[in-house]
Amino acid sequence: MEIKRIGFVGLGLMGSGMAKNLLSAGFPVIGYDSDPSKMEALAGEGVQRADSPEGIAPLVEAILLSLPNSRVVNEVVKDSLKLFDRERKGLILIDTTTADPVMSEELAAGLKETGIEMLDAAVSGTSKMCAEREATFLVG
């Protein structure tokens, strides 16, 4: 599958740097953050603003999450993105949150049943390192 557009939920310190790097690599990014000022700042750099997380999923082939913790990830995936409410076979969900492994495994198993592949992508590094493409991603 070719990834043409990437969704991004969580445009704080870490997420904003990742989103900017995706843009500079040529990927159109559709982003959402619960803080409108975060979205406004990135809209000027080329990130397309989504009115809600739910609006992102039908438009993209991959979604990255950069959220505070696994509880928030579960809420966003189930209640905001509504990924369990529709079939999105082939969608890739990449979670860069520092996550609880048990919660991540349970979420990934449930998503797999809907045709969605979830990758855990822990980030080793600071927000500055992310922005400068010096962080390490541990993906599995």
List the helices and strands and how they pair.
Elements lengths: L5 E4 L3 H12 L4 E4 L3 H8 L4 E2 L12 E4 L4 H11 L11 E4 L5 H12 L4 E8 L2 H5 L4 E4 L1
Parallel strand pairs: 1-2, 1-4, 2-3, 4-5, 5-6
Antiparallel strand pairs: 6-7
Notes on the structure:
- The protein is of the alpha/beta class and 140 residues long.
- It has one domain (6-139): NAD(P)-binding Rossmann-like Domain (Rossmann fold), CATH 3.40.50.
- 34% of the residues lie in helices and 21% in strands.
- It has helices at 13-24, 36-43, 70-80, 101-112, 127-131; strands at 6-9, 29-32, 48-49, 62-65, 92-95, 117-124, 136-139.
- It has a 7-stranded mixed β-sheet with strand order 3-2-1-4-5-6-7, with helices on both faces.
- 36% of the residues are buried.
- The mean pLDDT is 94.
List keywords for this structure.
Rossmann fold, alpha/beta, 140 residues, globular, seven-stranded mixed sheet
Relevant CATH superfamily: NAD(P)-binding Rossmann-like Domain
Main sheet: strands, sense, barrel: 7 strands, mixed
Query: How many helices in DSSP terms?
Result: 5
Share of β-strand residues: 15-25%
Mean of pLDDT: 94
User: Which fold name corresponds to the CATH topology?
Assistant: Rossmann fold
Helix content: 25-40%
CATH architecture: 3-Layer(aba) Sandwich
Q: Which class of secondary structure composition applies to the elements?
A: alpha/beta
* Oligomeric description of these chains: single chain
Number of strands: 7
Uncertain regions spanning at least 5 consecutive residues: none
What's the arrangement of strands in the largest beta sheet?
3-2-1-4-5-6-7
